UniProtKB/TrEMBL annotation:
<keyword id="KW-0560">Oxidoreductase</keyword>
<dbReference type="Pfam" id="PF00106">
    <property type="entry name" value="adh_short"/>
</dbReference>
<comment type="similarity">
    <text>Belongs to the short-chain dehydrogenases/reductases (SDR) family.</text>
</comment>
<dbReference type="GO" id="GO:0016491">
    <property type="term" value="F:oxidoreductase activity"/>
</dbReference>
<dbReference type="InterPro" id="IPR036291">
    <property type="entry name" value="NAD(P)-bd_dom_sf"/>
</dbReference>
<protein>
    <submittedName>
        <fullName>Dehydrogenase/reductase SDR family member FEY</fullName>
    </submittedName>
</protein>
<dbReference type="InterPro" id="IPR002347">
    <property type="entry name" value="SDR_fam"/>
</dbReference>
Length: 367
């Protein structure tokens, strides 16, 4: 059985994956032409949302727009000072427009390059014993062209920031999400997962079987997130009332461009028509976080025993993730390997849903 283990995408899958990526870049604006910008949101006065990576790019737009619609927003960020400065600016603009009560935003520190920091954040939030209605795992990195780097936990940085840390955060916050039920976990994913491949025996891409590039690191971390989300979606009992959704923001003009080679940067600036602004890129996550039909769609997929979780494209319509994402065997291997890497027991989800405490290998022991 092991001799026939898949070692990468077949060339046809790989080609189809790149066709998806190029198609999205060329036609995303046309496909999303029915959407307003900014996206109109319903009143969210009784909703509490945690948004990771919310000091720049898409995350900043998500946090601001949720707060302006009345939500209680928690900016979970690596740089609290930058977040406080932003809030000051937003509050000043808001009061100048005379739009009523001040925005309800707070800041909590969270560094996804440290799994200890993830555990500390979850403990601090759960200790409030309040509800969490929406968790938006937005923070991510794409270190284009940079050499391979590892976190202090020993994991390849793309895999940790884009997959492992958000997976740990999602599971550890389940007690608060249950209190906020019906609640949602929204993972900001990427069309790049279509060209990703996950080898569960080589999550750090160090075995030499695959040559590491930042693209390999990024795409495989995004595919791992879809696979893990699909299993989490199935493991959560319907009565818990927690929906799991992955979204593609589209190809967005964010800080990623800073890391691009000069010639690519020039091309990037020549085609602003094709590339979304951060505000346009925030729409799919905002839709997934607020639209009333999203939980019904997730329940429908669960009832049909669909192999993947809900995946919304940049035009806010349901779409199918990659062929490889439908590989249920690999998805379960990714689930098990991820739990092992983030230091959680294999029955962590079931126990947390039941209200039990669990031990995590990271942090101050009590998950």
């Amino acid at each position: 059985m092991t001799s026939s283990k898949k070692e990468g995408l077949g060339w046809m899958e790989w080609m189809r994956g790149w066709v998806n990526v190029v198609y999205e870049m060329l036609f995303q604006r046309i496909m999303a032409s029915h959407l307003h910008n900014p996206m109109p949101l319903p009143p969210l006065n009784d909703i509490t949302c945690v948004v990771t990576g919310s000091t720049s790019g898409i995350g900043r737009e998500i946090a601001r727009q949720l707060a302006e619609s009345g939500a209680h927003v928690v900016m979970a960020v690596r740089n609290p000072k930058a977040a406080h400065d932003l809030i000051q600016t937003w509050q000043n603009d808001w009061s100048l427009m005379g739009l009523g009560l001040p925005l309800n935003i707070e800041v909590m520190e969270l560094d996804l390059l440290s799994l200890d920091s993830v555990v500390s954040f979850a403990q601090a939030w759960n200790a409030r014993l309040g509800p969490l209605h929406v968790l938006i795992n937005n923070a991510g990195i794409f270190s284009i062209g940079e050499p391979q780097k590892f976190s202090k936990n020993g994991y390849e940085e793309h895999m940790q920031v884009n997959h492992l840390a958000p997976a740990l955060l999602s599971i550890l916050l389940l007690p608060s999400l249950v209190r906020g039920s019906p609640s949602r976990i929204i993972n900001v994913n990427s069309v790049m997962h279509y060209v990703g491949f996950v080898d569960t025996e080589d999550m750090n891409v160090v075995s030499g079987k695959r040559k590491y590039t930042s693209l390999v690191g990024y795409a495989s971390s995004k595919l791992a997130q879809v696979m893990f989300s699909s299993v989490l979606h199935k493991r959560l009992p319907a009565e818990a009332g927690i929906s799991v959704v992955c979204v593609s923001p589209g190809i967005v003009h964010t800080n990623v461009a800073r890391d691009l080679p000069r010639i690519v940067q020039a091309a990037y600036h020549l085609i602003p028509y094709f590339i979304f602004s951060a505000q346009e890129g925030s729409r799919s996550a905002l839709f997934a976080a607020t639209d009333p039909q999203v939980p019904e769609y997730c329940e429908l997929l669960k009832a049909d025993e669909w192999p993947v979780c809900a995946f919304l494209s940049q035009d806010c319509r349901p779409t199918n993730p990659s062929e490889e994402a439908h590989n249920t065997e690999t998805s379960h291997e990714v689930w098990e390997k991820t739990l092992e890497m983030i230091g959680l027991p294999s029955d962590a989800v079931e126990r947390l849903i039941e209200g039990e405490e669990i031990i995590c290998k990271y942090g101050a022991n009590q998950g």
